[in-house]
Amino acid sequence: xxxxxxxxxxxxxxxxxxxxxxxxxxxxxxxxxxxxxxxxxxxxxxxxxxxxxxxxxxxxxxxxxxxxxxxxxxxxxxxxxxxxxxxxxxxxxxxxxxxxxxxxxxxxxxxxxxxxxxxxxxxxxxxxxxxxxxxxxxxxxxxxxxxxxxxxxxxxxxxxxxxxxxxxxxxxxxxxxxxxxxxxxxxxxxxxxxxxxxxxx
Length: 201
Hints:
5 helices, 2 domains, alpha+beta, 7 strands, four-stranded antiparallel beta sheet
């Protein structure tokens, strides 16, 4: 048991480089031989996760774990999709959620989208006043807009090596602070309009 780390069993742990499900023996070997290595922990089972993310009052977010190369070094932010090793949530959270919520059919499209933008912004407004101008389509708001195809959108990142950082599909256009960063499904090179969102501002 490894419950002090949040996992219930060694089989809840995945060695990032190989996609190997760990045993007590392999866990202890990697701990001795590769203490700087990365493993993923599956501590939320799918039925529990689905119940949580499909609840109308739960917002969708990702802490975006850093992606690393096979030696554990952080990758540059402009690395190719699919190049990094890490948790698939870094690349696939929103595509995976949208596909799940659309297929489930229990929420309206307005509720589905609000959980990814408006509800997040509203939750953060007391601490980050500029959030009052984010997560909304209205005059005076920051022009952060995502247009996706509800028939196609899906996350492609998974726990399998080589797929941890695959880009989601079905995102047709993405606009950040009024500038397109994805146009017709393709990344616009050399455009970095994002700005840090800081507490108290």
